[in-house]
Inverse folding.
């Protein structure tokens, strides 16, 4: 029995071109910062990766900085904001920094924001979101910074960015977690000042990520000190192999988009997901699809199954070789309920009995959709 992978929001399989660029990186023996020929060869691949990723993100090359992933990028931003808060506190006459976010954020962001909120010069406001994915936006005219995911990792729903942009001040800093957005949606608009993301979400490998600083964000001070890599913004030797994988994945997406293949892959994925949803709703009438009416990623579906033993379901799915998401993508093996889902009003049991289906973006998904559905439905019936 072959395994079926429906957990792309946690980790997307490396693309063919990413694998090729990984091989190129492994054949390079030099440090990209070294001035000799080996270092220059490594630097060339690093520069090619920067060109490809910046094109995919729709930013300038000198606005892109390498990190080890989204979590590090969030820490960079929040540490820089901490320094700003300290300066405001020391001035004694500075106004609090007002930050807008949501309670459904990934722990990589949510925990950092909670740490910021402990500072007396920080006012953290949370947008109310209902189980249908509707964002209830308050008056945003006095918000200094918007910080949230462009697309939610658990439900796939899309943040109402255009509406937010019309409600905030021109000088308001906009920071987006773009981990789930990249290569699944068009490039984010230039109104976004900071982007954070990871290569393994769009066909690279873990260990490589990015931080984009543009517009109002270019005045932020780097919170860490060290060697001069990445113009001193992110000191330390770059995660070279992971960056090469990210560059290859980005180049593959750009080439496929230009040839029209990627549009077909997105359409194929969306059709497959619609088929999965329709079959679940027909076979399991009690199933509740989260965010069923709100715009969402074409590959992501979150479904709550009332009356199901979540631990038994997890075991059954694993035994049948079907990989799905339980809780946020980086929660490890811990079975704790998702705080993001509970923020929507789900009980602890309901959150634990919610599955996330996140399909890899590819054509011809119908080859394993039928078999995957049979395994899923059998598991749910057995765990009920």
């Amino acid at each position: 029995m072959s395994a079926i992978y429906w957990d792309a929001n946690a980790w997307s399989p490396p693309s063919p071109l990413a694998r090729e660029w990984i091989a190129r990186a492994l054949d390079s023996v030099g440090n990209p910062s070294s001035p000799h020929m080996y270092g220059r060869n490594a630097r060339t691949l690093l520069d090619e990766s920067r060109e490809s990723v910046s094109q995919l993100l729709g930013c300038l090359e000198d606005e892109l900085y390498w990190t080890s992933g989204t979590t590090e990028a969030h820490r960079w931003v929040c540490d820089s904001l901490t320094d700003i808060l300290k300066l405001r506190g020391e001035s004694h006459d500075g106004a609090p920094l007002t930050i807008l976010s949501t309670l459904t954020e990934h722990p990589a962001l949510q925990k950092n924001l909670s740490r910021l909120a402990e500072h007396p010069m920080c006012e953290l406001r949370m947008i109310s979101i209902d189980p249908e994915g509707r964002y209830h936006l308050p008056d945003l005219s006095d918000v200094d910074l918007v910080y949230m995911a462009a697309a939610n990792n658990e439900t796939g729903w899309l943040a109402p960015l255009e509406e937010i942009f019309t409600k905030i001040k021109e000088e308001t800093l906009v920071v987006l977690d773009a981990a789930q957005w990249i290569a699944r949606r068009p490039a984010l608009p230039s109104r976004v000042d900071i982007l954070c993301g990871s290569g393994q979400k769009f066909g690279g490998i873990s260990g490589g990520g990015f931080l984009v600083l543009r517009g109002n964000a270019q005045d932020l001070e780097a919170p860490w000190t060290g060697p001069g890599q990445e113009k001193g913004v992110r000191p330390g030797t770059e995660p070279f192999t992971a960056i090469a994988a990210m560059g290859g994945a980005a180049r593959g997406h750009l080439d496929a988009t230009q040839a029209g293949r990627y549009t077909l892959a997105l359409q194929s994925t969306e059709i497959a997901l619609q088929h999965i949803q329709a079959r679940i709703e027909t076979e399991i009438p009690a199933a509740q699809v989260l965010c069923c009416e709100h715009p969402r990623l074409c590959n992501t579906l979150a479904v709550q199954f009332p009356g199901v033993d979540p631990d038994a379901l997890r075991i059954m799915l694993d035994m049948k070789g079907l990989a799905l998401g339980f809780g946020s993508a980086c929660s490890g093996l811990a079975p704790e309920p998702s705080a993001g889902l509970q923020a929507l009003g789900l009980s602890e049991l309901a959150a634990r009995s919610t599955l996330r289906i996140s399909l890899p973006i590819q054509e011809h998904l119908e080859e394993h959709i039928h078999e995957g559905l049979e395994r899923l439905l059998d598991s749910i019936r057995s765990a009920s």
About this structure: The mean pLDDT is 91.
